[in-house]
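User: Could you check the structure of this?
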Amino acid sequence: MTLFGRERRAKERYRPLATVVFTVRSGKDPGRVSSPVTGEGQDVSSTGMSVITPRLAPDGIHIMYDTLMTYRNRIDATIFPEGKPPIRVQGTAIWFRAAEAQPGFYIFGMRFDEETPSLEELRFSSRKDPG
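Assistant: Sure, the predicted structure tokens are below.
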């Protein structure tokens, strides 16, 4: 993704598709956590990924912010790469939009709180052509 023709990503992304199960934790009330949502992870790097999801606000908790947009909500996710152990990540959604390829679905970009080097090794074993 580019903004005005300039690439903003600091780390190379690759296109393995993996099942992702995530919950959203309220930034205003951290004890309030959504039920799990199953999506599809793509464009993964050690610092973030995008997720295609059927729900943008599970249990009424929006992936990015509370209803007044004054608190940043948190995402806890588990990535299930094919043939590899699950990988847990935490972070925040930094953008979202409707998923053009799947009507009724959404896509959001997630930035991880910490770099996850174990995702880098997937780049070589799971690389798929973007087309």
